[in-house]
């Protein structure tokens, strides 16, 4: 890992047949050089960069979780006077430390530089080849930093669109996919943030292991528990109950949709599944 403020260039990365991408990496580090947290910025597509936040690395990492937050995915990742800043309400963002405690490298992906306008990544962008190219660059960078570690895509709410779609396209480049509070249904075209969600997605196209995680009391209209339960015939399902009273709308993270008050138990089940250990299928209230 580089010294504070130093830029470096990684080697060529094969992202698709006949396509070689030279990735420029700029890291902003705090804490110790060996376990520092960083902002990593990669040059991906023409005149486009993709940043991700690399949380403090475990002493003995066993796997990598590439975390896809919900909403438009814009966590406002930045450095201010040498301090790393970003929005932290989203479920996967606020539990990154729970992954680290369990030996998982936690990398939180931000929006690419051409998606900062408006509310961030649309559903259509999350399903696009451009998003695939950006995430392949991130995966290549993580693979260079942590050779041999399995990489899992973990998405929540709208981030599940990215994790599912990319999981189908990346194949053997990743070890598995975790879909939490998935946006199974389309949003009304007249809504402020419309989109198809995963309503037209064929889950059978994902050929790597998949874990479905959902709260039984998720009241978000586009993320009903019943849709998650219907996938239990194809994939293992972790069902969560209870927690703290919601302090946000039903589709926002401070509610059952974001496992409020059940964060630790939920991450524990996810990590145990990733590491092929016994895991809880039911997290009771």
What does this structure look like?
With 285 residues, the chain is an alpha/beta fold. The protein has a single domain (37-283), classed as 3-Layer(aba) Sandwich (Rossmann fold). Helix content is 21%, strand content 27%. The chain has helices spanning 91-94, 96-101, 123-126, 129-145, 159-170, 225-230, 263-274, and strands spanning 7-16, 19-30, 37-43, 49-54, 63-68, 78-80, 83-85, 104-109, 151-156, 176-180, 210-215, 237-240, 282-283. Strands 1-2-3-4-8-5-9-10-11-12-13 form an 11-stranded mixed beta sheet, with helices on both faces. It has a two-stranded antiparallel sheet with strand order 6-7. Strand 6 and strand 7 form a beta hairpin. The chain is globular. Residues 1-34 have low confidence and may be disordered.
Summarize the structure.
With 285 residues, the protein is an alpha/beta fold. The chain is built from seven helices and 13 strands.
Q: Looking at the structure, what is the overall shape?
A: globular
In the CATH scheme, what's the topology name? Rossmann fold
Count of β-strands: 13
Unreliably modeled segments: 1-34
Strand order, largest beta sheet:
1-2-3-4-8-5-9-10-11-12-13
Any guess at the CATH architecture? 3-Layer(aba) Sandwich
Residues in β-strands, percent? 25-35%
This entry's quaternary arrangement is single chain
Radius of gyration in whole Å, from Cα?
18 Å
**What letter string, H or E per element, gives the SSE order?**
EEEEEEEHHEHHEHEEHEHE
Key terms:
single chain; 285 residues; alpha/beta; Rossmann fold; 11-stranded mixed sheet; two-stranded antiparallel sheet; 7 helices; globular; disordered N terminus
């Amino acid at each position: 890992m580089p010294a504070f403020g130093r830029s470096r260039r990684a080697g060529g990365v094969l992202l698709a047949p006949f396509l070689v991408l030279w990735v420029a990496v700029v890291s902003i580090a705090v804490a110790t050089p060996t376990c520092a947290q960083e902002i990593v910025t990669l040059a991906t597509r023409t005149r486009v960069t993709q940043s991700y936040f690399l949380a403090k690395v475990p002493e003995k990492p066993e796997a990598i979780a590439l975390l896809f937050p919900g909403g438009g995915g814009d966590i406002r990742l930045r450095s201010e006077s040498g301090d790393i800043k970003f929005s932290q309400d989203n479920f996967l963002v606020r539990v990154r430390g729970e992954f680290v405690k369990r030996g998982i490298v936690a990398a939180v992906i931000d929006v690419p530089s051409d998606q900062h306008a408006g509310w961030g990544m649309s559903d259509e962008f999350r399903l696009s080849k451009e998003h695939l190219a950006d995430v392949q660059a991130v995966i290549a960078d993580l693979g260079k930093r942590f050779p041999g570690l399995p990489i899992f895509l973990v998405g929540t709410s709208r981030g599940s669109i990215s994790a599912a779609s990319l999981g189908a396209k990346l194949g053997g480049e990743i070890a598995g996919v975790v879909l939490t509070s998935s946006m199974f249904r389309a949003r009304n075209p007249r809504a402020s943030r419309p989109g198809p969600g995963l309503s037209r997605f064929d889950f059978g196209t994902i050929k790597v292991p998949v874990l479905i995680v959902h709260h039984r009391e998720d009241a978000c209209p586009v993320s009903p528990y019943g849709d998650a339960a219907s996938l239990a015939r194809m994939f293992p399902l972790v069902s969560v109950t209870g927690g703290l009273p919601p302090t946000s709308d039903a589709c926002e993270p401070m509610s059952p949709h974001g496992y409020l008050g059940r964060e630790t138990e939920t991450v524990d089940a996810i990590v145990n599944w990733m590491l092929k250990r016994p895991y809880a299928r039911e997290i009771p209230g």
